[in-house]
From TrEMBL:
Pfam families attached to this UniProt entry: RHH_8
Protein name, per record: CopG family transcriptional regulator
UniProt-listed InterPro entries: Arc_rbn_hlx_hlx (IPR013321), RHH_8 (IPR041088), Ribbon_hlx_hlx (IPR010985)
CDD domains tied to this protein: RHH_NikR_HicB-like
Length: 139
């Protein structure tokens, strides 16, 4: 089956929350920069720092995406998509850098029949039942 293009799940997907541990000195320096008006808040500084590092390593990311044949962005799979794959006698190898989303109308049985493997660098959104069914195929 030809590669699917990235599609939007909603107008704007929700951000994924992460937790980091920082030393008191680093945290104090961040608070000082916020207090001095360089950043609106801690999150603004951390997002800016992350984006700067991603920009600095953009060529490496592009090369790795191409080498690992990842879809960059958002990829959404509906029950109809998976039934079409199944009807064609094929299975999917989902490989996404970003967000892979499996619709809530996809049953665990359909997911198992249509999805051979899942590699997601970012986030996988699916029902708990589908994630449980695919657990051994998620890498």
């Amino acid at each position: 089956m030809p590669a699917r293009s990235a599609t939007s799940v909603a107008a704007k997907p929700l951000d994924e929350k992460i937790t980091i541990n920082l030393g008191y000195v680093d945290l104090g320096q961040i608070d000082l920069l916020v207090q001095e008006g360089f950043y609106a808040n801690r999150t603004d500084l951390i997002r800016t720092a992350i984006r700067n590092q991603l920009t600095a390593h953009a060529d490496v990311v592009k090369q790795s995406v191409a080498r690992k044949t990842l879809v960059l962005g958002i990829q959404h799979f509906t029950a109809d998509d998976l039934r079409a794959v199944q009807a064609a006698g094929q299975t999917l190898q989902i490989r996404v850098l970003g967000l892979a989303s499996i619709a809530l109308d996809v049953t665990p049985e359909l997911a198992l029949a249509a999805i051979d493997s899942v590699v997601v660098l970012g986030a996988l959104h699916a029902s708990p039942a589908v994630k449980a069914a695919l657990a051994s195929r998620i890498r």
